[in-house]
Design brief:
single chain; alpha/beta; 60s Ribosomal Protein L30, Chain: A; Alpha/beta knot; 2 domains; six-stranded parallel sheet
Length: 255
């Protein structure tokens, strides 16, 4: 039975303050919870229907709180339109960033990406394109926001996400001597440029783009050209769409 106190606690994790205070986040649905149970992210509590718990009992660590609940009880705490069979409360990862270990990797840096759905989609894209590290400015959306977690579709279990102070991180990263890319309307057509197999790709805020504070560290300005070049078109691309296009081109050039 899912008690009223437990219901209240689960709902409280919709607020960042409570997620941070308890170092927990909420994941909903069989696929997402299953991916997390198969990862290094440890569960605190699993709330599932009787059928789900019987079918997945062996996958749940022994020290996990397990609560059997009805569909109606799960519906009361679910943020989804169609309540799932299972909801999990998982411990947050306290990843420690070692910048020197990024020297042989292609990484993403997100400059104030504020929409949780965009952040979750970018995590999923990074997973698809084999980019294991995403560095976020402190003003980015919270990776543990329920909407972000759902948008990752389980990729959160395979990607390292860090939050940093912009200038301090970028000053240190610049000392590695690696290319730092950013997208601009006055940049070089990315399809005409030889791209590196490692370095940092910076994606900007949904409305303002890359901030001047971050722009000063960029040494390769890229442009995603529309087609045809001289036709009227939208002013800009959604940041997650732009990230997909850029990551695809970086990986296409890998021989």
């Amino acid at each position: 039975m899912l008690s009223k106190n437990k219901q209240k606690f689960i709902l409280s994790l919709n607020r960042k303050k409570m997620r941070d205070q308890n170092e927990l986040f909420v994941a909903e649905g069989h696929k997402l919870v299953s991916d997390l149970l198969s990862s290094d992210i440890h569960p605190s509590t699993i709330i599932g229907t009787a059928q789900w718990l019987v079918q997945n009992d062996k996958r749940i660590p022994h020290n996990t709180e397990v609560i059997e609940a009805t569909n109606e009880e799960i519906k009361k705490v679910s943020a989804l339109k169609s309540p799932p069979e299972v909801i999990g409360l998982f411990h947050q990862n306290n990843n420690i960033l070692n910048i020197s270990q990024l020297s042989d990797k292609l990484c993403l840096f997100l400059d104030e990406v504020q929409d949780p759905g965009n952040l979750g989609t970018i995590v999923r894209l990074a997973d698809w394109f084999g980019i294991k590290d995403i560095i976020c400015s402190k003003n980015c959306a919270d990776i543990y926001n329920p909407k972000t977690i759902q948008s990752t579709m389980g990729a959160i279990s395979r990607i390292n996400v860090y939050y940093v102070e912009n200038t301090s991180f970028l000053e240190t990263y610049s000392e590695l001597g690696l290319p730092i890319y950013g997208t601009f309307l006055d940049g070089e057509n990315m399809y005409n440029k030889q791209l590196s197999i490692n370095g940092l790709i910076i994606m900007g805020n949904e409305g303002k783009g890359i901030s001047s504070e971050v722009e000063q560290f960029i040494n390769h300005r890229l442009y995603i050209p529309p087609f045809p070049a001289d036709a009227p078109t939208s002013e800009s691309l959604n940041v997650s769409v732009a990230t997909a296009i850029i990551c695809a081109e970086f990986r296409r050039q890998v021989k």
